[in-house]
Design goal:
Length: 297
């Protein structure tokens, strides 16, 4: 058994192309951009709602503003939809592949991002509806990324490429809050924050339809050496039956519950700060809209 493992490791080392750019890196870049745009869509309302409810934030008086008494509820509505598909999305990605789920999810999320300026004029409830649908569709993103990384990234590269992909979320948050604060203070106003991200999401969908693949075996233009290296490193053949999910072991695992509780607490604090600090800076500390987002960090 030890000999077999050593032989397998030697085969992987022989096939390793080194740091040469390959198809797996293209998939990684696409997933990084996916999370960057997704977190931008998630975060831009945190700053945008300041400009949407305060007529003094913009010199252009033609930019509409609204009076809402339920701003906190509006800001939280994204997460009402977000929590629903997590486990189910992972199972769908596992059995059917995540590529087209990502196309549909990002496409719908982008369309409802573009609709926010229109729906906001209807009322706070209409804006909440947009955010709930955005949250629901974006609930597919992380499970799909997990699945794709498991199919594309050899274990020896997983820490590096996985870190790069998941850094797209925090990076997108930084960019979105800063960009939204800046553009909300210009003459074009807050609507263009949503138009920009909605358009960016649709462009991502088009590129992903061309470049995205569920696995190396479905990539017709991948270098055969890279394909052989990935499949040898992962140590499984594509035709094998998928293992069943050990639901009972998951439900009775104390370490898993400890991580779940700790992560839920961390996410609660992070989300509260992310969604409410811009409003606090503007309404309590009286910061200008263009300085709200940089100060946020």
């Amino acid at each position: 058994m030890v000999v077999a493992k050593e032989d397998g490791a030697k085969i992987v080392d022989d096939l390793n192309p080194g740091f040469r750019y390959g198809a797996r890196h293209t998939q990684g870049i696409m997933l990084f951009v996916l999370l960057m745009i997704a977190y931008g869509m998630r975060a831009n309302l945190s700053v945008g709602i300041v400009a949407m409810t305060n007529p003094e934030t913009n010199p252009n008086k033609d930019i509409p503003t609204y009076t809402w008494n339920d701003k906190s509820v509006i800001l939280s509505s994204f997460f009402w939809g977000y929590v629903i598909p997590q486990i189910g999305a992972g199972q769908l990605a596992k059995y059917y592949g995540p590529k087209w789920f990502l196309v549909g999810a990002m496409g719908v999320s982008s369309l409802f991002t573009l609709l926010i300026p229109v729906m906001a004029s209807v009322g706070g409830w209409a804006l909440m509806l947009c955010r709930i649908i955005q949250g629901f569709t974006q609930g597919f993103f992380y499970p799909s990324c997990h699945n794709l990384l498991s199919k594309w990234v050899p274990p020896s590269e997983r820490a590096r490429l996985g870190t790069f992909v998941y850094a797209g979320g925090p990076f997108g948050t930084v960019v979105s809050l800063t960009f939204t604060g800046w553009i909300s203070g210009t003459t074009v106003g807050w609507p263009y924050a949503f138009y920009t991200y909605g358009t960016g999401g649709l462009l991502w969908v088009v590129v992903w339809m061309v470049l995205g693949r569920n696995s190396p075996s479905q990539h017709t233009k991948i270098d055969p050496k890279e394909k052989a290296y990935i499949e040898a490193a992962l140590g499984h053949a594509e035709q094998k039956e998928l293992p069943s999910t050990p639901w009972r072991s998951i439900a009775t695992s104390l370490p898993l519950w400890a991580i779940l509780i700790a992560h839920s607490g961390q996410n609660w604090g992070f989300t509260t700060l992310l969604t409410n600090i811009p409003t606090f800076l503007q309404s309590v500390l009286h910061f200008d809209i263009r300085s709200v987002s940089p100060v946020h960090f």
